[in-house]
Design brief:
Distance between the termini of chain A: 39 Å
Oligomer: heterodimer
Number of helices of chain A: 16
CATH superfamily of the largest domain in chain B: MetI-like
Number of strands of chain B: 2
CATH architecture of the largest domain in chain B: Orthogonal Bundle
Number of strands of chain A: 0
Strand content of chain B: under 5%
CATH superfamily of the largest domain in chain A: MetI-like
Shape of chain A: globular
Helix content of chain A: over 70%
CATH topology of the largest domain in chain A: MetI-like fold
Largest sheet of chain A: none
Strand order of the largest sheet of chain B: 1-2
Number of domains of chain B: 2
Radius of gyration of chain A: 25 Å
Structural class of chain A: mainly alpha
Structural class of chain B: mainly alpha
Largest interface: A-B, 104 and 105 residues
Number of domains of chain A: 2
Shape of chain B: flat
Helix content of chain B: over 70%
Order of helices and strands of chain A: HHHHHHHHHHHHHHHH
Order of helices and strands of chain B: HHEHEHHHHHHHHHHHHH
CATH topology of the largest domain in chain B: MetI-like fold
Radius of gyration of chain B: 28 Å
CATH class of the largest domain in chain A: Mainly Alpha
Distance between the termini of chain B: 51 Å
Chain lengths: 294, 320
């Protein structure tokens, strides 16, 4: 296809390429979303309808029973609430810490800035590992509390570097002008740096919020009380442990049919699906700054 | 002579005095800045450097009641035991092979996607496709795993439904150890290929449009423009991303495997991280698991340093 374009100035080759390109990209887009659509269709199917066939391209009969079942599940709401707390409190803490630190570290001439930067970046290259961190958190008496899901992840070095580089790229003349007008260093942060960096800050807020919403492995490690489970951990037990029980000869798969599981899945991703397209226009800038310059 | 030396010494001390005085004044002047740095320093010490220090339990006979400091040193005994275990080599092999397969499939895909997206002139179409392919990146492996089970299960899964409709026999994508790693690789690409195009899209945005204008005047076709302008312009990004991926070779996708694996596929899918988790926290062999973890951290560190060197050699700023 592409070779035909070698003959210069023949738009037909170019046109044919365009058509194939559009078709190909559409197929890729649809394939990427298809698992989501399939989950959605299954979540709307009555269980008998689901078991009849394997190929569910669209809902043949609609039942809201899976959703009403999930909506009435107390454990779901408890875990949902825990996740909301972790996301809201966690993300606020993340942003507070990250903005403060990134601002200070973006001061090129500040004494000690380079050393501290080195110590922070070093943690990206070397870590003590899972077990020592587990022991630290145990010793801090954070086990089985939501704090274990918030404080140990109070900052992400990666996001810190993105934001620091963004602050770094703000022209110094702006800050100097403010300084002459009698603005303090803190004042500059709030009056100049933050307003200018809105795209970077919103992107990073989203990154943090999604990470907090999705985090489950730290909950596997630190939370054993079901009433403190975050949503992801609840879903994991709902989606996978029942299957294991089924494989081991139990009957739980049919007690909690696939439509109900998929209803739970839909309920967990709807908040993310609603939010992230609005942030999309900022992604390119945020990722570029962090990843290329590091 | 003697006097002179004394005077000199006096001068020196005065100088250092002034310097330390200046330093004090400097800190005072910027006290708010340093104060703002404090929480981060405390955070990094407690949650990164203390665990780094805690990794010394790999060299100890760790006893919960005695704690990290009180436990007895046993030197390299844990490592010796580790190097004698077949399981250890198996998990390293699995980590590296899974990670290499991810690299081979997962590295070129976003580049090709970004180049194709770059050829699209209609912004709404481009935005729609981008929105669609970014989505899985934002969803946790727990949920994506649930969807994979929904799609790939032996009974009532769509993919096996299609396979049987065409007369094939159903495949245990998630249960059969012949297919499990393939499923891991493909589903990882599904989750991340879209998101990974972003960095290339950013690089593409940075290309000077005048280059294309000049090429068009010279009569270069779009294919030629891609080969002679677009790809050379994003080459440095491609190199940096590739080097970084090499540096992350010890990461084989812990969360994904942790959600999807089961004893039936341990032979092919048990990686260093899952092994550390199981021996350390499920079996309670803290010291042993730390030894494995420390071994991984060390290899990781070496890989990253090498990657950084390579990136400098490739004419890029070091990544770190």
């Amino acid at each position: 296809m592409k070779k035909r374009k070698n003959t210069i100035q023949i738009p037909t080759g170019s046109k044919i390429f365009d058509i194939f390109n559009y078709i190909f990209l559409s197929i890729v887009g649809i394939l990427t979303l298809y698992p989501f659509w399939d989950a959605f269709v299954v979540s709307l199917s009555p269980i008998e309808e689901y078991l009849k066939t394997s190929i569910h391209l669209w809902p043949t009969k609609i039942s809201i029973e899976p959703y009403s079942y999930m909506l009435n599940l107390r454990e779901l709401w408890i875990s949902y609430w825990n996740t909301i707390i972790v996301t809201v409190v966690g993300t606020s803490l993340n942003m507070l810490m990250t903005i403060m630190t990134a601002y200070v570290l973006s001061k090129k001439d500040l004494k000690g800035q380079r050393i501290i930067m080195f110590f922070i970046i070093f943690t990206m290259m070397f870590s003590g590992g899972l077990i020592p961190l587990y022991i630290v958190i145990k010793n801090l008496k954070m086990m089985n509390s939501l704090a274990a899901l918030i404080i140990p992840t109070a900052m992400s070095t990666y996001n810190l570097i993105i934001l620091r580089n963004f602050f770094y790229s703000i022209p110094q003349s702006l800050e100097e002008a403010a300084m002459i007008d009698g603005c303090s260093e803190i004042g500059i942060l709030f009056k100049i740096v933050i307003p200018i960096s809105k795209p970077a800050i919103t992107t990073i807020t989203l990154f943090y919020a999604v990470t907090n919403w999705n985090q489950f492995f730290s909950a596997v490690l630190y939370i054993y009380d079901k009433n403190k489970w975050p949503l992801q951990l609840f879903l994991r037990s709902l989606l996978f442990e029942n299957d294991m029980a089924y494989q081991a000869g139990g009957e739980s798969l049919f007690m909690l049919g696939q439509p109900m599981k998929m209803a739970a899945v839909m309920m967990a991703i709807i908040p993310i699906m609603c939010v992230y397209p609005f942030f999309q226009k900022h992604f390119t800038k945020g990722v570029m700054l962090g990843a290329v310059k590091g | 002579m003697f006097m002179e030396a004394k005077v000199l010494e006096k001068k020196k001390t005065r100088k250092t005095e002034i310097r330390s005085n200046n330093l004090c004044r400097y800190f005072l002047k910027h006290k708010y800045l340093y104060f703002m740095l404090l929480p981060a320093i405390v955070y990094y010490i407690i949650f990164h450097y203390v665990p780094m220090y805690g990794a010394i339990i790999a060299f100890k006979n760790f006893n919960v009641s005695k704690g990290i400091l009180g436990s007895d040193w046993i030197g390299l005994a844990n490592f010796k035991q580790l190097f004698q275990m077949d399981k250890f080599y198996q998990v390293i092999w699995n980590t590296l092979t899974i990670s290499l397969k991810r690299l081979i499939v997962g590295f070129p895909t976003p580049i090709i996607m970004a180049l194709l997206l770059n050829e699209v002139k209609r912004t709404t179409f481009k935005k729609t496709i981008q929105t669609a392919i970014y989505l899985p990146h934002f969803i946790s492996w727990v949920i994506l795993g649930g969807m994979l089970v929904n799609l790939l299960s032996l009974d009532n899964g769509l993919v096996n439904g299609i396979i049987t409709a065409f007369g094939g026999s159903p495949i245990g994508f998630l249960t059969d150890d012949k297919y499990f790693v393939k499923t891991l690789v493909v589903s990882m690409v599904w989750k991340e290929f879209g998101w990974n195009t972003i960095i290339y899209m950013a690089a593409l945005l940075g290309i000077d449009p005048q280059l294309y204008e000049a090429a068009i005047v010279d009569g270069a076709s779009r294919w030629k423009q891609t080969i002679h302008i677009t790809i050379p312009c994003i080459m440095s990004t491609i190199v940096v991303v590739f080097i970084l991926r090499l540096g992350g070779l010890m990461e084989a996708g812990f969360e994904q495997i942790f959600v999807l694996y089961h004893p039936g596929v341990y032979k092919v899918a048990d990686i260093i991280d899952t092994y550390v988790y199981r021996t350390g926290l499920a079996e309670g062999k803290f010291a042993m698991a730390s030894a494995v973890g420390l071994f991984k951290s060390l290899i990781n560190f070496i890989l990253l340093v090498l990657a950084n060197k390579m990136s400098r050699m490739a004419g890029e700023e070091g990544v770190f």
